[in-house]
Amino acid sequence: MTLSELAVTVAVLGALGLVARRVGLSAIPAYLLAGLLLGPNEPEQLALIEKSEVTDFVAELGIVFLLFFLGLEFSLSRATRTGRHVVLGGVVDFVSNFGLGLLVGVAAFGFSFATLVLAACVYVSSSAIAVKGLIDFRRLGDDETDLVLAILVVEDIVVAFMLGFAAAGGGEASDTLILVAKALGFITAGLAASRWLSGPIDRALDRLPLEFFLLSVFGFLIGSAAVADRLGLSSAIGALMAGIVLSETSVRAQIEDRFFSFRDIFAALFFFAFGLSIDLGAIDDVGLIVALAVALTLVGKLGGGMIAGRVGGFTSRQSLNAGVALVAHGEFTIILAQIASENALLGPNQQTDLVAFAGLYVLATATIGIVLMKESKRLGRRLLPLD
Amino acid sequence: MPVDLRETRLPGVGVKYTFKTALGGRVSVILHIDGQREIYFYRRSDDDEPTAVIDLHDDEARQLGAIIGGAYERPKIVEDLELALGELHIEWIPVPDTSPAIGLTLADARLRARTAVTVIAILREPEPVSGAQPDDFIQRGDTLVAVGKARQFSLFRRLLAEGPFTDD
């Protein structure tokens, strides 16, 4: 990737992102679409940019920043304070959607490790798109919004663990188990560090002049990602943990402030780079699977939302609103597919199919999800009794 | 607190406070992590669309909160005092332009001796007097900050407006 190619890329990202914003869609599908259009695969009319070491590296930084921010927001005390909806909503959502995801996975890959990854891709909704929708459509004041956000917290935690072994799982069962244990150990160490080391870290970071503050936080982030990578856990887990370690320090807000723009730029480039590797030529292979997954997602998320909502004491209209907010899939589906696509234990066919699947699935659900969210209250009034 | 206030964490967003109003409406206030505030108002508490939503920046929200809470324009020192007062009250009493007390010191006016109300501060441009002393003069345009029991203030106001202040 040359500078002029980067300039074109950023211009296209900006333009498509703006268009998406104007029509009320999230920017994530827009960035994917940009990659799809400019990338070397079908459609080839606009093929300008090749996947290269540079795009891979930029994409990796994007994942690192996305997970770092998730870690910063992810603290045990916050998760436990989120309240009564966490357990009920989280379990119903997991059982229904991971279950249906496994069904789709088996249809696509039979019984293999890729099936698990695909199930996770179908399970995890997009926190970014859901939260943006809740804010844009003025839903924050609604009671059922609490349920939606609680479910998203649980999903984020579950997926954090899955990221740990998506990179290298799928070999012998014992190897995969060791990997799971490593991931658990790594994250536990991070949580412990956030609890016991926040004081000393605070004092150390507080004394640094701004320039070195930035450098040391960045160094810690990249170092932690590199260590996790060496352990065979994927850099994403390392970045997540770096965020968790810093989440309880008093400089958290300052870190978020300073690194916000890094995250946005590299995340946009990450989604773009992922779009580069989506091959519409694979639509013959995965088209049906994507259609099946979208249909089952509607069933699972709306059904799960309805069950969790009704049991949790919400009206059926409120439960519908909660369910539709979870239809859109985004960042985590893409991140999981990206990490699994670098897993050498999956065959090249499975890698390509997973990437194409995730790309198309996110494009479809992100669009449908936002439209449904916008219309859900009207739909509820039309279709469901007042109770 | 007579109001039944419900606090909910919104992970990744902030905190939400919700209560029902006496007239059957519902108010939700959202404090975003980045300092933005939103106020949602539902005319009936089970409405599914908010009647109105107000977006506020941090400084605007603080200003609005001060106005609604009644703390606007009161000096901080007095606000703190008020908490410690118990059954005593603090009143802000503008000195009428025609008041015969203008030009007298607090000691000469003998306000405390005659009404049991104590002047603790004087608000005036450009600089308020925070700890009023007996030899401070009462000037045109002043507002007296005074402490006393509720029923003593009517006498205080009448005396301030009409006198008489004699050198006895």
Write the layout of secondary structure elements.
The complex is a heterodimer of chains A (387) and B (168).
Chain A: H1 3-22, H2 27-38, H3 53-73, H4 76-81, H5 85-109, H6 113-123, H7 127-136, H8 144-166, H9 173-196, H10 198-206, H11 210-230, H12 235-247, H13 252-276, H14 283-311, H15 316-324, H16 331-341, H17 348-383
Helix pairs in contact in A: 1-2, 2-13, 2-17, 3-12, 3-13, 5-6, 5-8, 5-14, 6-16, 7-8, 7-17, 8-9, 8-15, 8-16, 9-12, 11-12, 14-15, 14-17, 15-17, 16-17
Chain B: E1 6-10, E2 14-20, E3 26-32, E4 37-42, E5 52-56, H1 58-69, H2 76-83, E6 89-94, H3 106-109, H4 111-115, E7 118-123, E8 143-148, H5 153-162
Antiparallel strand pairs in B: 1-2, 2-3, 3-4, 4-5, 6-8, 7-8
Largest interface (CB within 8 Å) is between: A-B, 27 and 18 residues
Report the β-strand fraction of chain B as a percent range.
Answer: 25-35%
Q: What order do the SSEs of chain B take from the amino end to the carboxyl end, as H and E?
A: EEEEEHHEHHEEH
Task: Give the fraction of residues assigned to helices of chain A.
Answer: over 70%
The CATH class of chain A: Mainly Alpha
**Topology order of chain A in helix (H) and strand (E) letters:** HHHHHHHHHHHHHHHHH
**Contiguous runs where pLDDT drops below 50 for at least 5 residues of chain B:** none
Please give the CATH architecture of the largest domain in chain B.
2-Layer Sandwich
Main-sheet strand order of chain B equals: 1-2-3-4-5
- The coarse silhouette of chain B is elongated
